[in-house]
Amino acid sequence: MKTSGGSDAAKRRAGEHAADLVTDGDVVGLGTGSTAAHAIRALGRAVDAGLDVQGVATSYASRDLAREVGLPLVELGAVSRIDLAIDGADQVSDDLALIKGGGAAHAREKVVDAAAARFVVVADPSKETATLDRSVPVEVLPDARATVRRAVRDLDGEPTLRAAERKDGPVVTDNGNLVLDCDFGALPDPGSLATALATTPGVVAHGLFVDLADEVHVGHADGVRVRA
Ligand code: 5RP
């Protein structure tokens, strides 16, 4: 599973703290990334200890990890509710807007996180910022990559096709699409950019998660700070 910067101990503390919120009978959205992976492993241990829980995976990576740790899975279409989603983020602003998609899983993550009654973000302090300013991952239909590039430039962004780390060629998402990492500089108003990207033909999903997170659990050396 892809690991970004930040201390693994802090990520672990955040992930385990969020996993402690899960109660018997819950359906839990399983986020993607190294921080969410700590929550999945903690839930696997809780299942071993008798917790009755079902997970809805947001990616093949989170599905595979859940299987490995013995966490029962259910398809999103087979459940009428998700009680809690636990997911990581690449950046978290003061007002809990997020940039996600470092692992190219943001399309399914957004569906699951938005469907959850409670969406808990898990992060280490390196993810915190006053104003979002990282590149925004935009998943695009392969045929639309040139038109979306132009649309991003019209919005004063600079798009870069995400390249695969371990082989030649682009990153291909779990949905068979490509990712443009789009640098817009600082985003004091991520909501309007989110709307503009969401209404661009060929965009499958963008990594701006605005007004979705209910709380953020940030792991520190001496504990976990919860922001809501
Ligand atoms: C995947 C994501 C991840 O949640 C995000 O990249 C954070 O990852 P990590 O916990 O490894 O830092 O959005 O699409």
What distance separates the N and C termini? Answer: 28 Å
The topology string of helices and strands comes to HEHEHEEEHEEHEEHEEEE
Largest sheet: 6 strands, mixed
Shape verdict: globular
Radius of gyration: 17 Å
| Strand arrangement across the biggest beta sheet | 2-1-3-6-12-13
Mean pLDDT: 96
Roughly how much helix do the residues carry, as a percent range?
25-40%
Poorly predicted runs of 5 or more residues: none
Number of helices: 6
Q: Structural class given helices, strands, pairing?
A: alpha/beta
Q: Which cofactors or ions or other ligands sit in this model?
A: ribulose-5-phosphate
Number of strands: 13
| Strand composition percent | 15-25%
Active site: 109
Catalytic activity: aldehydo-D-ribose 5-phosphate = D-ribulose 5-phosphate
Subunit structure: Homotetramer. Homodimer.
Function: Catalyzes the reversible conversion of ribose-5-phosphate to ribulose 5-phosphate.
